[in-house]
Design brief:
The structure is a homotetramer. The first copy, chain A, has about 475 residues and is of the alpha+beta class. Chain A folds into two domains: about 5-245, Aminohydrolase, N-terminal nucleophile (Ntn) domain (Glutamine Phosphoribosylpyrophosphate, subunit 1, domain 1, 4-Layer Sandwich), CATH 3.60.20.10; about 270-440, Rossmann fold (3-Layer(aba) Sandwich), CATH 3.40.50. In chain A, about 30% of the residues lie in helices and about 25% in strands. In chain A, a hairpin with a 2-residue loop joins strand 13 (about 225-230) and strand 14. In chain A, helix 5 (about 115-125) crosses helix 6 and helix 9 crosses helix 10. The model of chain A is unreliable at about 460-470 (pLDDT under 50). Chains in contact: A-B, A-C, B-D, C-D. Chains C and D meet through helix 1, helix 2, helix 8, helix 11 and strand 19 of C and helix 1, helix 2, helix 8, helix 11 and strand 19 of D.
């Protein structure tokens, strides 16, 4: 799949004793790395004093030994990984955000995107708030801190603040003595709770992070729920649950989440296999092999193979050593970046009719290059099957996508797309099928496929105006 | 699979015109990276002047933009990747080796290991040669250069020198105006020739490097063959072919080579599937799923599934962001490195009887950890199947393995191993089956499985003495 | 001299045309590097959009080619260097500070220290401001931005804000279209204006930065003055001038400033020579040579030599290659860090009676080590002369010094100090002499020598409380 | 002074006990850094096993903590710093050179340049030696090792080898159990011996390195002497002493050596002052101030001032933070690199008649820029005085200089040079005066001033041919 970026992954830990919570956060962030490769950060709260290290880059690049060990022990830590853009912004926008306040320091990590950040910010600025960035996360922090001035506790402040926020937000927050996890009432982004054998409570975007820190899954945070962990135990505030239609992002199952994660009770891997099964069931094409595009199409391809009876095959070798510093070939070198990164196995492909499965098509250009490489490897027929519906609309809830006009399915019919990407046939999953890949599929947000946005869209035009005016 | 290291990968290119041969070598080395991660190097021969850049690290680490672009254009280049050890040696031992001589400069890259390097070296030293390292490659270079003093051409010198070398050596050599490829008469290590549309001739350890530089496969270099490319064309000397029993390393098919490569006419991927099929055919165990250990067991697992009719499944998620700088968890952190790197998918595993396929067992410890993680994920039964015979003996031909006494199969029966790694049953491929995975399977070297070494073993005791005496 | 740290150096440039103002800022910061080695930063204002790059480290470390060139062209830039502490704070506290606001973005760089920052901050927080750091500079920015909401222009906002600030502050500020320079009414820290031949207006902490960017000196900014540069020219607001006693920090002449700078009309170099002359005139000791401690004592030593008639000599070689990464010798190595860094020239020292001149003594330990090294080099007598009065009190105006109780002169008489540092005699400059080293010497702040602080000291206890509570 | 490069600095240590000899070498190399900034290396001989770390860069860059600590303890270590060129060569040519041989490993560090390296190499190659580089040091190593085959001891081999070498060579050599120091019979380059209180014997290019490791000076190694240190004590072979005319490089006193060093019994600092005194004594010009060009002209300027009675002044501030990564200003920035690096102090210069002293003029361009900057700072007259004779000839003994035709004094009369560099008058030291700056001045090599080369010049043409043919 090409270039859809999840916004972020978040993690938090509360321990009964002072310990190396930074390292545990580090392992958790490693397992959430797929949710964001732009920047990484960890804050250790050591008895009310916040110690942060964050920078642009992968977890492994940001937290070299010296940096990780520069963080002290503590009882609370939160961590964050952020999606991949480039340039100076990465450093400025790295999370968690930490602020220093007479009512107590605060650190916060956010996954998602607000739809009312412009209004929030306008109001905050008019009453004296001063912003360093254009990020909506800064608005969340300011809203909470403002409420704190008139609240009895940080959890009360969070509760009041959350009611002012619209859109997608899974948050982990550290006050001087508490760890708080919040999931927006729509539940756009996942958030779960786990427990380690030594009693540490952890929160994470996905269950794979629980596995990484040796925690067992306790439960998902409910849409609208606020969970507070302190020395006096775990308290939950569910007042805001059920106030909105549940709307977990369907792309979490299709692409974003790691396939070993369980989200809102359902296995990501099985959901992906289910997508492949649905594609197979509504298909009549004859073929010799089913092949997935590594790595995003493999699970659905296996589901397709199982349901269709057509043999599953490994069709490509993906070069696992390609890194950030790869220097792309020039045209004059007559060698293709794609073949260096993803090479078809000719002995598998040659002379075969291929079912090629991927999770989505964004612009179509990468897809076409892959298909051409299969033709060069001798594929007789190529039938492309996409394990999601045609991707036509923008996302306002934390998925960073191109201008909708650049989405191939926004501009072309399926028949036209098949011609453009040069396949013999092309099928997509339907929205109806998508809503059946997990038992609670009716509660998925499918707005980017059917334009049925579960919230008002207030500031999206304004947003771009903002972004253009400052570049930190 | 645990820690078997291939020695190296080699590449060479001869162009009709002066061009950016360094970049093409860079892409080729990227695709050969699996053959060695310790160091990488490229020599560009620019009209007789050798320009080298080499250092320890991955291709992507050694050749950052400035370093790659510091190499000039030229008509000949050779490149090398070397296997993964640690420490100061990596830098010292990086190849290609370049020497400066009045008869002309010489650069050489070597994959394999000599069995008579101690004798060679003793003789060379007694006649005045001075060595910088203990590497057998330096002995090869010196032998060639000495022969050059009394030869009419570099190819004559290479021909004479090769007759003094015993053991495994696939070489690419650049003289001021020629590119020479040599494969030892046993053909222990692979070496192939390709051609780009613009007429450039390339040599590489594996065909996947041809794909990476947009070259089509011409043919394998024969065991014992010396191919010389110069402005006057391609000349071959086959005088030494058929002087020895062909002995391509069986582990090239089982593990080392990339599955999209074709070696000596046969697809690595299909050979691996064949291993799985053999395992299935001689098996009677009942199971729900066939799972491969990523990435080395996946092809054989698929072969097993196809032949047995038991469904193939993706049983693990491998974290693709774990890098060199990963900081391992301490025991006190109660979190497991393995689960961070390779996490079982509980929804797939839970309650199932599993056929688990991997390519080999070395010491058994990694294997046991993986099996335990499957048990924790709910596996009801685990039947391990290994797509190679029990690994019991040392290799003297370029595979860097532990002391044979540390090989689990050298010390234990299959039954004992099954108990140690805690599986319900364990089967290996037989040597007889191994010799049938490719049509010319009789010609494979299987010495590490059956101790039938195709050469005398002259200096292996001496060798270790050497290694201990100097550490550059 | 040992470890007195100046807080910062600032620079600003306003050009009539869009150009590479980042590079000019870079050269200016190079020449101001002696004022702060902890962090460096440059903001380019490109038509209202602020582009910042800042990090911990020296100018040369922060602004490697890629980073400097990542900044766009623009018409306004400001830059900052910050004094040298260690650790995580350096990154967090790097200046300039940039904020994003609906009334326009703002960047600000500050040299100095407020004495009412605690009150300011308390008031700002109680009305909703949220702070990221404990730095007083953040309070300055917030005060200006708050005033901006009710002001017609940024310069009006600055004028109102300045009236709320107490203490030391030389500021350069970039609004979307204006460059503003401010110097506090006491004029604690220097600030001057220059002009380049192409009409660019620049502000800098010292005139050496004007030389570095090819600008000629126009004039010093007056204590209390606010100078605004915009497309409509240069406007000045002197309403706040003469509202306070002028109090330029005496240490600027004694130590901080570069000796080629002219501050408030007087040459730093000549002021230092004058210190040496005063020391000589009130001295009767007989000696063979006058030697300065490199580099801070050299100018005064020359002044002493000229006034006394005792020959001036180069007594030490300072190793100019010692850098940040120097690994200090351990005791067991029996080698001395001092001799590696600063080695006496035995052929000069041996058998001589030495006048040794330095600018100050802080704790006395470095001083004693230097004196011992002279003894080992054969000095017969050592008479130490200090070109400032005994250093006894804290500074609240931007000089980062130890706890006064650790100052040797705060705890000991001159006689005792002479014994501790093991000299044959010791003399200091008197405060009266200090007030004569420049014509306007009466206007110098000499509070750290005579405890006559020119402002109330409001928050210094509170300050330390603050610093301890958070560590970003 | 502009761009004359010394070839190298060497160091060796022999300890009675196994200890951290690497760190002591590191401190010694720090103090020899002025002799070479291109590369640095240390070899620790740990009971016959050689452990080397070397790379391009300054000592502080090459030996970051991890690299220094990667070296084990041992009883012998040798170290080397090499002069500053750029590019790929730096890494390849870094010393010490280490070789592995059945007669025992060998490490060698060399300061100087052979004049018969071409003949040596030709002979060595014809008898089978194979060279990796074009460096003459490799020829020295090979000659010694060849002699070793037929010698009873390494010191005998060194003695025989030295007789085959012509030109300049100060060597430190580590055999498995001995440390050997050699100085060529002309004594072109300095080499001295010291002893630490714990009995460690050290050899170094200059005495400043003895100070750095806490050793006291024992004596200079005599021209032609071979000193061997082993467990059985210190043995010297003086057979080759007095076989050649002593010819210590005059530039060691004028420029290369550090002024706190004592070379062949005479203080470098005093020799430089003496140069200034001679200049003053033969001068009649009237002036107000004597100023040295930092740092190379300062000592002679002080000597001039003392002898003439004209006051000495500090005329420049040299920016001590300019490092390797400095990005030079472009012409369009209208700012001058020189003023950023070396700024005149206007308050000193303005209106004055200046005697400006430097150690030499190479091409004249830097000199002219400095003089122009003094004019801009208001100098009324500038009288340049050079503390060496006109520099007209090549050096074949280890000083890396431009083609003689690019030397301004090789092409122009003194009068013409004065016009070119725009001074009011110009005087040089005479060769006769130079020969009186130290008592044994008659024994100085002054060939680059008077073309009286103390050896035949055999291979200098050949040399350049060589250099051009290979570039590693």
């Amino acid at each position: 799949m090409e270039h859809i970026h999840e916004e972020c992954g978040v993690f938090g830990i509360f321990s009964q004793t002072r310990k190396d919570v930074a390292s545990l956060s580090y392992y958790a962030l490693y397992s959430l790395q797929h949710r964001g490769q732009e920047s990484a950060g960890i804050v250790v709260n050591d008895d009310g004093i916040l110690n942060v290290y964050k920078d642009k880059g992968l977890v492994s690049e940001v937290f070299i030994q010296d940096h990780l060990h520069s963080l002290p022990q503590g009882r609370i830590a939160i961590g964050h990984v952020r999606y991949g853009t480039t340039g100076l912004d990465a450093k400025k926008n790295a999370q968690p955000i930490c602020i220093n306040h007479m009512k107590g320091n605060l650190a916060l990590a956010h996954n998602g995107n607000l739809v009312n950040s412009y209004e929030l910010r306008k109001e905050l600025e008019s009453t004296g708030s001063i912003f360093y960035t254009t990020s909506d996360t800064e608005s969340i922090v300011y809203t909470i801190v403002k409420e704190r001035l008139t609240s009895k506790s940080i959890e009360e402040a969070v509760y009041k603040a959350v009611q002012k926020l619209e859109g997608a937000f899974s948050l982990v927050i550290s006050s001087p003595s508490k760890l708080i996890a919040v999931r927006d009432p729509h539940g756009f982004r996942p958030l779960c709770m786990g427990k380690r054998d030594d009693g540490d409570i952890v929160f994470a975007s996905e269950t794979c992070a629980l596995d990484a820190v040796g925690a067992h899954f306790v439960r998902d945070i409910l849409p609208g729920e606020i969970v507070t962990v302190s020395s006096s135990g775990i308290h939950t505030n569910k007042s805001l649950c059920e106030t909105c239609k549940k709307s977990l992002c369907a792309f979490e199952y299709i692409y974003f989440a790691r396939s070993d994660s369980i989200i809102d009770g359902h296995s990501v891997h099985l959901a992906r296999q289910k997508c492949g099964e649905f594609l197979a069931k509504s298909d009549t094409v004859k073929a010799d092999l089913v092949i997935g595009v590594p790595d995003s199409g493999l699970d659905a391809a296996l589901g397709y193979a199982n349901a269709s009876g057509i043999p599953y095959a490994n069709g490509f070798v993906k070069n696992k050593y390609i890194g950030r510093t790869f220097i792309s070939p020039t045209n004059s070198q007559r060698t293709k970046e794609l073949n260096i990164k993803l090479n078809p196995i000719r002995s598998v492909i040659n002379g075969k009719r291929i079912i090629l499965v991927d999770d989505s098509i964004v612009r179509g250009s990468t897809c076409r290059r892959i298909i051409r490489s299969l033709r060069e490897a001798g594929a007789k027929e190529i039938h492309m099957r996409i394990s999601s519906p045609p991707f036509i609309g923008a996302c306002y809830y934390g998925t960073d996508i191109d201008d909708p006009e650049k989405l191939i399915a926004n501009q072309h019919t399926i028949k036209e797309i098949a011609d453009i990407i040069e396949v013999d046939s092309l099928n997509y999953l339907t929205v109806e099928q998508l809503k059946q890949i997990v038992p609670n599929g009716k509660e998925l947000c499918t707005a980017c496929f059917d334009l049925k946005y579960p919230t008002r869209i207030a500031n999206h035009q304004s947003k771009s105006k903002f972004e253009n005016k400052i570049k930190f």
